[in-house]
UniProtKB/TrEMBL annotation:
Span of domain GH3 C-terminal: 388-494
InterPro entries xrefs: GH3, GH3_C, GH3_M
Domain (GH3 middle): residue spans on this chain: 297-362
Source organism per UniProt: Mariniflexile gromovii
UniProt protein name: GH3 auxin-responsive promoter family protein
Length: 506
């Protein structure tokens, strides 16, 4: 009998039952009140009269009316740059303890996003909530005393003056609670290795010493790590070395496009749980097995707003027009794309995180990520979000029984005519023309706007296949391997020209 596992499982079950139900909408009103109250004496709070907002009849409406939208460049130029000049109490009391470095999916230059001690506590709290939610999943008691392998960025953070810098996954791992360290793998020594390939080789060598029950990380990098463990240890699948592996916690991107290639590395099905941890905070996690949607963390350190994702509200660079309406949790509708806006305990205010989401259950505040504001393919009116592109690629996998591990697309001009030009990362041999015809027909049937575009300005579809390693090498060359690095799903023509040159020469 697994005594420790049964005890832990019992505690989680009891804690879940004793945790009172709360209204996500009421939680959000309380969070906004706390954010404004704590930051009212900062330079930002005084400039935008937080005290007046707190005294208004409708704090949520007053907040959205008085404070403009900020993307990273705007808030960094106008406010966070003051922190780098030595100012304090700028957008949050005191100074941040960390900066999360993030180049996202759109550029080489790292953003430096403040991460305060309050945000660290908020992330820990959300993590505990996710652990409690495991009581909803049918997991054996043996799962609860196994190791948890977290493959993020290096925990060897960069020391800069009075703070530390690194990717958010590295910062989070750097701050794991003491009670969790006994379960945490690969352990502090390996986790500090900055070179991703060297870190993965160390994991492969140590793998047989660990009894892993759960793994966590970006799907593309997790797949490469699992393949390295399999190859090094000369086994058929990952369950040959980790027989008790029960859970994979995905994050950062939709898991759907990776499902087939990921499952090929397993000996049996496991539970997949989606999470949404961004450089700006722990935003959502999957709280129940009946859905793959994620529940917003509405009682933590983040206040959410939602802007309808309509062309008239979006500038060419993905930013919002000043008059774009922001909705509260009370005002949203199902199955509608929204630009996600956050305000946080790190002094991030009305911040355009760059993701678009849709609600699948408003009462539970459950969402799915549908894409990026900059990765919305609408050059010729096709109006394709990333989730629609993902669905089309998944259709190809099922139709031809192939695995497509990565992809990217551009609306590119050939002799003055626009074509959707796709690159698929696959090891399977299949005619590109077949893929082009099938994905074109699928999108015509699945998307009215695409069908109209194909009858007008969108001339056709072109497809090329390359080894999946080409995508990984591109990420390594342009940013860095592992961590939070994700592949650009949609590229503009200039970036796509760089990609094509790279893909041809590698």
């Amino acid at each position: 009998m697994n005594i420790i596992g049964n005890i832990i499982k019992g505690v989680i079950d009891i804690t879940e039952k004793l945790t009172p139900e709360s209204s996500p909408s009421d939680n959000q009103k309380e969070v906004l009140n706390k954010l404004l109250s704590k930051a009212k004496d900062t330079a930002f709070g005084k400039f935008y009269s937080f005290e007046d907002i707190l005294e208004s009849d409708d704090i949520q409406k007053s907040f959205s009316n008085k404070i403009p939208y900020f993307d990273y460049n705007k808030i960094n130029e106008e406010w966070w740059s003051k922190l780098h000049e030595g100012d304090t109490n700028v957008t949050w009391p005191d100074n941040p303890d960390y900066y999360a470095l993030s180049s996202g999916t759109t550029g080489k230059t790292s953003k430096r996003i403040p991460v305060t001690e309050d945000m660290i506590e908020s992330i820990k709290s959300a993590g505990i909530s996710q652990i409690i939610a495991l009581s909803h999943f049918d997991l054996p008691a043996t799962f609860f005393d196994k190791g948890i392998l977290m493959l993020g960025s290096s925990t060897d953070l960069i020391e800069k003056d009075d703070h530390l810098e690194g990717e958010i996954s590295g910062i989070s791992a750097h701050n794991i609670p003491s009670w969790f360290r006994g379960y945490y793998k690969p352990g502090e020594k390996i986790a500090k290795i900055d070179d991703w390939d060297k870190r993965v080789k160390k994991i492969a060598k140590k793998a047989k010493e660990w009894d892993i029950g759960a793994i966590s990380g970006i799907p593309s990098w997790i797949e490469l790590m699992l393949q390295e463990v399999i190859d090094y240890n000369k086994i058929n699948n990952i369950h040959d070395i980790w027989p008790n592996l029960e859970v994979y916690t995905s994050g950062g991107v939709a898991f759907g496009p990776y499902e087939k290639s990921f499952n090929a590395l397993l000996g049996r099905p496991i539970t997949i749980i989606d999470t949404y941890l961004a450089s700006e905070g722990f935003i959502a996690f999957q709280a129940r097995p009946e859905t793959d949607a994620m529940q917003l963390v509405t009682d933590g350190g983040i206040y959410f707003e939602f802007v309808p994702f309509k062309p008239e509200y979006i500038n060419q660079d993905g930013s919002l027009v000043a008059h774009a309406p922001a909705l509260t949790l009370n005002e949203v509708a199902l199955n509608t794309d929204y630009v996600l806006i956050i305000s946080t305990v790190s002094g991030t205010w009305r911040y355009i995180i760059g993701d678009t989401i849709e609600f699948t259950d408003i009462e539970r505040a459950e969402i799915k990520i549908t894409g990026r504001t900059k990765f919305f393919l609408n050059t010729v009116g096709s109006q394709l979000s990333v989730n629609k592109l993902d669905d089309a690629v998944k259709h190809l996998e099922e139709h031809y029984n192939i695995k497509i591990k990565e992809y990217t697309i551009c609306a590119k001009r050939y002799d003055g005519e626009f074509y959707h030009s796709w690159y698929f990362g696959t090891e399977d041999l299949i005619e590109a023309d077949q893929l082009a015809q099938t994905i074109d027909e699928y999108l015509k049937n699945a998307n009215k706007n695409y069908r109209v575009a194909r009858s007008k300005a969108l001339k056709g579809v072109k497809v090329k296949t390359v080894p999946p390693s080409t995508f990984h090498d591109w990420s390594a060359a342009n940013k860095k391997k592992g961590g939070q690095v994700k592949m650009e799903r949609v590229m503009n023509e200039d970036k796509f020209e760089e990609w094509e040159t790279f893909a041809t020469n590698n």
